[in-house]
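SAMPLE LOG
Freezer: B-3
Tube label: C17
Construct: single chain, 529 aa
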Amino acid sequence: MKKKIQLSFTTKLFLSLLIFSLICIAFLQSYIWNATETALYRSLGEKAQIQAKEVAVIPSLIKYVEERDTNKIAELVSGIFKQSDASYIVIGDASAYRLYHTANSPLYSPMIGGDNQEVLSGNSSITISKGSLGLALRGKAPILDQGRVIGIVSVGYMIDDIYELHKQQFIPFISFCSLLFAGLFIFSLLFAKAIKKQMFNLEPKEIALLVKSQKSIMESIFEGIIAIDLDYKIININQSARRMLDIKISDHKLLHHDLCDFIKSTDFLYGCDNQTEDIHDHICYFNNIIVIANRIRIIIDEQIQGWVITFRNYDDINLLSMQLTQVTQYVDNLRALRHEHLNWMATLSGLIYMKRYDDAQAFITLHSADNQQNLDFITEHFKVAAVCGLLIGKYSKAHEIGLQLIFDPACQLNSIPAAITETEFMSILGNLLDNAFNACLKNTLGNKTIYLYLNDATDEIVLEVSDQGCGVDESIRDSIFEPGVTSQETKEHGIGLHLVSTYVTKANGYITFEDNEPYGTIFSVFIPK
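STRUCTURE (predicted):
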């Protein structure tokens, strides 16, 4: 593969100006060429017509044509032709047969071109026709004797001769355009270098990279960042800080705005003590939000010019803790399943040791038939190992707490879309099942059954979890996916559905819920592949 040629900004600007200049000059030349060509044709056409009219009224010519004296006609017209710049002159009779041709064409041969009819009607004409010598611009006039047409005078300019004449007339303009192009060439080169100098010899991509990298660094950090000067005016701020402080002002209006307009007085920001020291991990209030903040000095030439303040919501630490707790719960589910299997193995080992084989076989049949059937179903229909492990653990947990997890026969999952990670998908599935379990345990009227449908046969993954639980309370239906909203009594809840909604939205999907009959809720998730 050939390496792509990289051109500098100066070269690109120079070439762009040069090409633009060439295009403008080319259009100008084309316009001037067409305009002068049209004017030349009009001028020569009128000139040919005037010459034809002047020749046609010469008394001696009228007499010679009337007498058809070709020698006298030739003697007269040849003298006129020598004084003319026309390509040829032809004299014809009333039947459009040649009586004379300056190119010595045969006499009494027809005048060809098909443009004689108007002249024979008594009118002069200007035409472009192809004659015996080729394509020519012709001016024709009738020879009249007492109002009667007795002949034709045709004065012609060959198209090739006109083209050569046009080229000769156009040479000065071509020279002017060449000088103009040379001037534009020098101007483009100097202009490109001047622009490059104004940009400190940096390429636009390099300047954009510096600006974008600073912006990207600011925006990629989850913490809120505010840079202020010595007067506590905002120099820079990222979106996280704007969001946490609920700042709606546009960037250009926010620049050099007083920080105190957005953050109420706090010793951490405005206190006189320790302004010359950096502060790390200080817990304080920004308005009504508890934050963990840092204050770093901006030092230029050994002088403090301002501060960079970084802060994060104190509750975010709890959020991460809850996420870790959920992962721990998944591990506990698998550990419980392993513990149950170890108990079974110990029982089987004892029965076999006592040679009670029939009892061992009955024990295996009793405890493994249903589990094996569901295990086979899960491994055959779900090709993602982590999802299989999660579902096996959830099935075991449901069995332990007195619930029944039923898989729809149409379930299948071959892969997880690239837009969502395996961990995020497991979090969605696990949270919906956990919520269904809790809802069923709280409702004494339901049948303790949870139905799971998971399918990727179409262009999207469809996940549906329905339960016979207590349903969603009317007071939280509109805010069910917001953090901290829960129907549970313990404070560690209220993050599951928020995580589900966040992960689904991140994958360009959507989640809905509706009431189940006669009890419970149906949660449906749609994630495009």
